[in-house]
Every structure is written in C-alpha cells, then in structure tokens.
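User: Could you check the structure of this?
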Amino acid sequence: MKQAVVWSQERCTYCDQAKALLASKGIVVEERQIGNNAKWSKKDLIDVVPNARSVPQIFLEGEHIGGFLELQTYFREQADV
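Assistant: Sure, the predicted structure tokens are below.
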C-alpha cells in the first residue's frame, strides 16, 4: 500500500483537499501538522523542504511532489501513462 506524508496546518483548504485526494486513491496519509500547538514546527518543515513557502507539502513514497496543484498534476500524468 502506498504511503504519503502531508505537511499541513489548521484551516488549510488545500491541505484538506490533498488529504482527501490521496485517501480517494487508497493511499495511507501521515499528516504532519505545523503550528503553535502542533507536534511539528515550521522549522521542521524547512529542514525537509528548504524552499517551502506554503502548505501543504506532499511526499509520496518518499518523493517530494510539492503542493496540492502539483499533486493533481502528478495524478493526471500517471493516468496518461
């Protein structure tokens, strides 16, 4: 079963959409929420994705995909193959 890591934060529409899209594909999602009361910090995210300026930041099977729009493109391209 495929796995994904989604770096997110509260009240993030794109984060919610990314998690829903991944779940619809049967992919197990590990959410790493950043914020004031979260386990993860923005520094943790920057350590993994130095040029990250927004969330979500999505990794699929260890490969950095990018944000929600890049995730949609990824799945569109996979369908074309």
